[in-house]
Every structure is written in C-alpha cells, then in structure tokens.
Amino acid sequence: MSAHDPKRTFKRPFPSSAPSRYDSLGLGGVEKMKRRDVIKLIGGAAASWPLAVHAQHDEMRRVAVLVNVAADDPEAQASVAAFKQALQQAGWSEGRNLQIDFRGAAGDPERMQVFAKELVALNPHVILTRSTPVTAAVLKQTRTIPIVFTVVSDPIGERFVESLARPGGNATGFTNVEFSLTGKWLELLKEVAPHVRRVAFIFNPKLAPGGGSYYTRLIEASAPPFAVTPTVAPVQGAADIERVVGEFVREPDGGLVVLPDATTLVHRRLIVALADRHRLPAIYAFGIVVTDGGLMSYGIDVVEQYRQAAGYVDRILKGAKPAELPVQLPAKFVLAINLKTAKGLGLNVPLLLQQRADEVVE
C-alpha cells in the first residue's frame, strides 16, 4: 500500500370568559363574537410569529473564505466541507440563505493580497481566514468586516487582537500553537529517533509569525534540554528546500522539524520525498503530511478547527461582534504516526508511543 493511499486506524389555554382581556387585544364587543372566531384570530397571529423569524433567517448572507494553500488542496477541501456542514447544521444553506466565496492563495503572498482585496470588495458579512499572512492581508483591506481566523500562531503579537479574552477589533478566531509545542516536537522526534543530535527547523520567514522570530525564540528555548543543536533553515520555495536539506545532510545524526506555514504545507510532498531519500526522521505540524507519507505529526486538527470556526461565523451572522468573542486556544493536539515510513527509515516506533497516537497509518 502506497503512502498516498494508506490504511488508517483511528484511536480516535385560552380563558373561557375574559372580556377585558379580549378587549385589550382591540377586538371590541367580544361578547358579540363567537369564541371560536377569537381563537382562530389569535391562533393565526401566533402562527405568523415563527414564520417571521424564519423569514429573517432566510435572508441571504455572504461569507468569504480565504486559505493560504491552493483551493483544490485535499486538506483545504476537507476543511471547507466541514465548515459548510457545521453551518448547515446551524441553519445556513448555500443557495437558500448563504453564499460562500472561496479562494486559495497556493502559498503565494502576492495572491493573498490580491484575493484579500477581491473578497473585501464583495462586502461579505464575515470573512474566514487561514494562517497569519492571510489574516494580515485581509486586515490590511478592512477594519470593519468581521473576520474569523484559523491556524494563527500569535494574534496578539501580530496585532490582530488586543487580548485573547477581549479581541477588541473586527477579528477573532482560533490559534494553532502554544509555547511548549516546539519542545514537544523535539521530544517526539527523539523518542522515535534517539540518535538525532542535530535538528533543522524549516520554515518561510516571509510567511511565519514575526518574520520567523516567533518560532526562533521557541526553538532556542526548547532545544537544550533534548541535547540537540538547532539549525534555523529559512526557505521560500522548492529550490530553497532542496538546497537547505542537501546542505544539512552533509553531517550525520540529523532530523527535521517542519514548521507550519504555507510554503512547507504547499511543498509537503517534496519535503517528505527528501526526508525519505536522505533517511531523515522528520516531524510535521499537520496530520495531512503523515497521510502523504511523512513520518509523524503533532498539532491541531485543522478540520475540527474549521467546524469550531463555523460556530463563530454563525454567531456573528446572528448579531454577535468579533470584538466580544474570545480567541480560542487549542484544546487538544493530535499525534499521527506513519509506521510504513518509520520502517523505511529503519526506525522502531515504541509500542507505547503507538498506543498514545490518535492516528496510525500502516
């Protein structure tokens, strides 16, 4: 069975006589009306109330969605499908009371800016974004249209919000990391490959939070306890990735930590292929990479985060303000392991670690 077609296992009453009340309804001379006529009139009015509410909910709303990867990326497709399903469960249906405009920037910063401007010009009621640079691009275009972001690492540092509890502006949403995450990546990597002494952290500084400084601070703090020498490996595209990995493997005992940004996600199959070719143990932030043949991943469930984001979009469409909706931190990180890839790298994944995994690809 190929890495691209894996087998997956988941760990995972109406008063009889009350003239004064009838008169208060403006019916007048109720003693001259038949009781059944009054009941019919009142009943008809009551029936119209839910219809009025339903009609209000049927008013067309527009939601824009901008992601950092290609629109046809499998993870993007699965995430947006989950988002639409959750909105449908909340009473929103495309073509009846909801229109969704979807764009994918395919990892290109310029396309992020172009699509952000294009979607804001459509004047949607809410914009759903994925990633730090996409959210920044949309906020550059509007400070009034509500934004719900996903997969953002440092919303305060990026000035997307004033605080997590009270965002204060037109944006709120869901984060994807916490300060201990880089340490956990190193811990898991060493658990599977104890021989690793050098680790290259691959990311695109143009797309990473704080130009990469957010991650480098975490890396410098987390590496010493695991007796590894960190190498910051900035890349901007496929050529950079091949060059950086080629230079890194000139010395032995290396491993990779592939950080979460559009460049590493768009080029995930290339990184997986290079890791296999050079027999480099690697850990990733997104489970989709394990499905594509990566050794292991530890991070948020992106599809589930889109479902949660649909809840915020629903609340905003019904009148809530993003300034008053707290930013949500990850409640759980998901561990996925590809045993076939481990075998190909000559690694023995401890049984206890397999049992701890949320997903195992065989």
Sheet/helix structural class? alpha/beta
Radius of gyration: 27 Å
* Share in helix: 40-55%
Mean pLDDT over the full residue set: 87
Report on the biggest sheet: 8 strands, mixed
Do you know the CATH topology of the largest domain? Rossmann fold
Please give the CATH architecture of the largest domain.
3-Layer(aba) Sandwich
Q: Which word captures the global form?
A: elongated
Q: Please write the string of helix (H) and strand (E) elements.
A: EHHEHEHEHEEHEHEHEHHEHEHEHHE
Number of domains: 2
What does the secondary structure layout of this molecule look like, with pairings?
Elements: E1 8-10, H1 19-24, H2 35-57, E2 61-67, H3 74-89, E3 98-104, H4 109-121, E4 126-130, H5 132-141, E5 147-152, E6 171-175, H6 181-192, E7 198-203, H7 213-222, E8 229-234, H8 238-248, E9 254-258, H9 262-266, H10 268-277, E10 282-284, H11 287-291, E11 296-299, H12 302-317, E12 334-338, H13 339-344, H14 351-356, E13 359-361
Helix pairs in contact: 3-12, 4-5, 6-7, 8-10
Word description of this protein:
41% of the residues lie in helices and 18% in strands. By secondary structure, it is an alpha/beta fold. The protein folds into 2 domains: 61-176 and 302-324, Response regulator (Rossmann fold); 181-299 and 333-361, 3-Layer(aba) Sandwich (Rossmann fold). An 8-stranded mixed β-sheet has the order 1-13-12-11-10-9-7-8, sandwiched between helices. Strands 3-2-4-5-6 form a 5-stranded parallel β-sheet, with helices on both faces. Helix 5 (132-141) links the parallel strand 4 and strand 5. The radius of gyration is 27 Å and the shape is elongated. Residues 1-56 have low confidence and may be disordered.
